[in-house]
Amino acid sequence: MPSPQNPSFADFSELDASSAPALHQLHRACFSQDEVWTEGAFQAAIEEPSHWGVVQFDQQKSALGLSVMRTIADECELLTIAVHPENRGEGLAAGMLAQVIHEAAAAGLMAIHLEVAEDNPGALRLYENGGFQKAGRRPGYYRRSKDQFVDAILMTKTL
Ligand SMILES: CC(C)(COP(=O)(O)OP(=O)(O)OC[C@H]1O[C@@H](n2cnc3c(N)ncnc32)[C@H](O)[C@@H]1OP(=O)(O)O)[C@@H](O)C(=O)NCCC(=O)NCCS
User: Fold this and answer.
1) How far is the CA of 91 from the centre of ligand 1 (A)?
2) For a tag site, which of 1, 12, 77, 92 has the least CB within 10 Å?
3) Which pLDDT tens digit goes with each residue over 59-74?
C-alpha cells in the first residue's frame, strides 16, 4: 500500500452517508465538544449536493482522516479537516489537502477558501505548505474559554 507520505489518490474514499458514524467518531477524537460535528451533521452535509470531500479508513473501517468541502458557485470552502491523533505527522492531512485541491481544480473551480484559528500552528503550516495565502482575519472568532477568544485567519488558494 502506498505510504501517506506519498499518497496515491486511490487511497482516499469519497464521502458517503453510511460513513457518518465513523466520521463523527474521528471528529470527536480531534475537536473540543463544541466544535464536534454530530453524526446527523455529517449525514446532512454528505447528502447536500454542494458538499464533497475525502476520507481515509483503516482495515476495520475506522476513519483515520477526513476533509469536507462545500462548493459555492465557482469556488469552494474547506469546512473541516482532521487526522486521528495516532496518525498525525505522517503526511495524511497533506495528502488529503492535495487530493481536494486536485479535485477542485479538475472541476473547474477558481479558488479554495478556509478559516483557521491563529493558535493552531500545525494547521497553519499545513495550509501554507499547500499554497494557501493569508487573506484576512476575523477578530475573536473562536472562543477558547469564558473570556478567551482567538482570531480566525482567512486563507485562500487560487486554482
Ligand atoms: C492539523 C492536522 C489536520 C494535521 O494533520 P497531519 O496528518 O498530522 O498533518 P501532516 O502530517 O500532513 O503535516 C502537514 C504539515 O503540517 C505540519 N504540522 C502538522 N501538525 C503540526 C503541529 N502540531 N505543529 C507544527 N506543524 C505541524 C507538518 O510538519 C507538515 O509540515 P512539513 O511537511 O513542513 O513538516 C491534525 O493535527 C489535526 O487533525 N488536528 C486537529 C484538528 C484541526 O486542528 N484541524 C484543522 C482545523 S482548521
Assistant:
1) 8
2) 1
3) 999 999 999 999 999 9
The number of distinct structural domains making up the chain is: 1
Residue having the nearest C-alpha atom to atom 8 of ligand 1: 88
Residue 5 has pLDDT above 70, yes or no: no
137 occurs within a structural domain: yes
Beta strands 111-117 and 51-57, pairing class: unpaired
Q: What is the pLDDT of residues 141-150, one digit of tens each?
A: 998 888 999 9
**Rg (the chain; Cα; Å):** 15
Which of 121, 135, 131, 73 lies closest to 100 in space, CA to CA?
131
Report pTM.
0.93
Nearest to 73 by CA among 113, 125, 119, 13: 113
Mean pLDDT of 75-101: 96
In a domain, residue 113? The reply is yes
Do the domain assignments include residue 2?
no
User: pLDDT by residue (tens digit) across 44-58?
Assistant: 999 999 999 999 999
Residue 126 Cβ contacting ligand 1 at under 6 Å: yes
Is 150's C-beta closer than 6 angstroms to any atom of ligand 1? no
CA nearest ligand 1 atom 1, residue: 123
